[in-house]
Design goal:
Elements: H1 7-11, E1 16-20, H2 27-39, E2 46-50, H3 52-61, H4 66-74, E3 88-89, E4 92-96, H5 99-108, E5 121-127, E6 132-136, H6 142-149, E7 153-155, E8 158-160, E9 163-167, E10 187-191, E11 196-198, H7 222-238, E12 242-246, E13 250-252, H8 261-277, H9 286-289
Parallel strand pairs: 1-2, 1-10, 2-5, 4-7, 10-12, 11-13
Antiparallel strand pairs: 3-4, 5-6, 5-9, 8-9
Helix pairs in contact: 2-3, 2-4, 2-8, 3-6, 5-6
């Protein structure tokens, strides 16, 4: 009986699109997944991302290597983006102004427009004015990435032109539709935010009597977002584009546990390496989306 090819062997000669799903502070995880892909000799020709996925996708698309991405993310601290402001302003409601975050993006990213990126890039954002997710792939890069990461009420909405945007993860987890147009791909790999090993920071003082930050934010129900993602998978398959969903275990982090970023990166890297070396579809997270 012929030996089954590992996922690495199956993917090596294909045009690969990479989709980095939304997930609270999951950018370390995505960077680890990228590291495993490159170690296996798999280099995406296109990339998309939403929320935390948009940050890692933008870093990679602009030409940063995996080591630089890891170092830049691990170096992030809460003060890198924590610029509290009066929460009610012309741009909308948000505890953080977002100026510091955008300044950090401008410092880290080597290019500042979609057109200057090394790889075609699209990021998912939630258009507040029309109430739906859209995918940005041209024009200024910094405000687009900020918009995709701007968690409602934590960050002030991004203003791009005359429109306001928030975190694309509000409406969908996986920005897959962009792969139906532009540079063709044979297969789309989804780095999905699967099961989490939660790292709960110790809550002291007044914080122990307050609800967790995540309970303060509005969000589209998970099942509704999954329905949108499943429809996108169906559309890709109808266009003869294969979809593989990889969901290695991840470490759940937040703004008060960023010191665990290096560990989260390693979990993503090692988990993806194990999956790529296997030929067992049971290891994939495919059942999440179809």
């Amino acid at each position: 009986m012929a030996r089954e090819l590992s996922f690495t062997e199956q993917l090596r000669d294909k045009r690969v699109g990479l989709c980095l799903a939304s997930g609270f502070f999951g950018f370390y995880h995505h960077a680890g997944v990228l590291s495993a892909l490159e170690a296996a000799g798999i280099y995406p020709v296109r990339i998309t991302g939403t929320s935390a996925g948009a940050l890692t996708a933008a870093m990679y698309a602009t030409g940063m290597n995996v080591e630089s991405i890891r170092d830049a993310l691990v170096a992030l601290e809460r003060k890198s983006f924590w610029d509290m402001t009066w929460p009610f302003g012309q741009r909308g409601v948000g505890l953080l102004a977002g100026h510091r975050f955008q300044s950090e993006l401008g410092r880290v990213l080597p290019v500042h427009s979609f057109e200057a990126c090394r790889l075609p890039l699209a990021v998912g954002v939630y258009n507040i004015d029309v109430g739906r997710v859209v995918h940005l792939s041209e024009g200024p890069l910094i405000p687009a990435v900020y918009a995709s990461c701007a968690l409602p009420y934590l960050f002030s909405p991004a203003r791009i032109g005359k429109l306001s945007y928030w975190d694309g993860g509000v409406g969908e987890k996986c920005p897959l539709i962009p792969f139906l147009k532009g540079l063709p791909v044979d297969v789309v790999l989804v780095s999905y935010m699967g099961g989490r090993r939660i790292a709960k920071p110790k809550r002291t003082g007044l914080a122990q009597f307050l609800p967790p930050l995540s309970s303060l934010f509005v969000d589209t129900p998970l099942e509704e977002r999954l329905e949108r993602d499943r429809a996108s998978v169906d559309a890709l398959r109808a266009a003869d584009i294969e979809v593989l969903v990889f969901a290695p275990e991840r470490l759940g982090l937040g703004p008060f546990s960023m010191h665990r970023g290096a560990r989260a990166f390693e979990m993503g890297r090692l988990g993806m390496e194990r999956m790529l070396a296997s030929a067992d579809p049971a290891l994939l997270g495919a059942s999440v989306l179809f």
